[in-house]
Amino acid sequence: MVKTITIRDTVYEKLVSIKGKEESFSDLFTRLAECQDSRQTLLRLRGSVELKDKEKEKLLSELYAARAERRT
User: Fold this and answer.
1) Are 32 and 41 in contact, with CB atoms under 8 Å apart?
2) First vs last C-alpha separation in the chain
3) How many CB atoms lie within 10 A of CB 55?
4) Largest Cα–Cα distance in the chain?
5) 3-58 per-position pLDDT tens digit
6) How far apart are CA 64 and CA 29, in angstroms?
7) How many CA atoms lie within 13 A of 29 on its CB side?
């Protein structure tokens, strides 16, 4: 079964940057979804996406907020 999804251009570019050359997007999503430990996923992705300092700060802020929200 094939499904169509819509993502922002910025998300697409990040996914392209971590996708292997011979890897399909379905394979990439499977690989990311199978890694149930979020820490392990982050370690695997570390260095795959280059962020500017401002983008990094925003991403970290969003991650901390999501983490705090889950704990309440």
Assistant:
1) yes
2) 37
3) 12
4) 41
5) 898 999 998 998 998 888 899 999 998 888 876 677 776 777 776 666 677 777 88
6) 23
7) 7
> What pLDDT was estimated at residue 6?
92
Give dist(CA 62, CA 41) in Å, integer: 17
Q: What number of residues does the chain have?
A: 72
* Token pair 């901390």 in the structure block, residue: 64
Rounded Cα gap, residues 4 and 50, in angstroms = 27
Residue extents of the structural domains in the chain: 9-71
Query: Within 10 A of 49 (CB to CB), how many other CB atoms are there?
Result: 14
Dist. CA 21–CA 36, nearest whole Å: 24
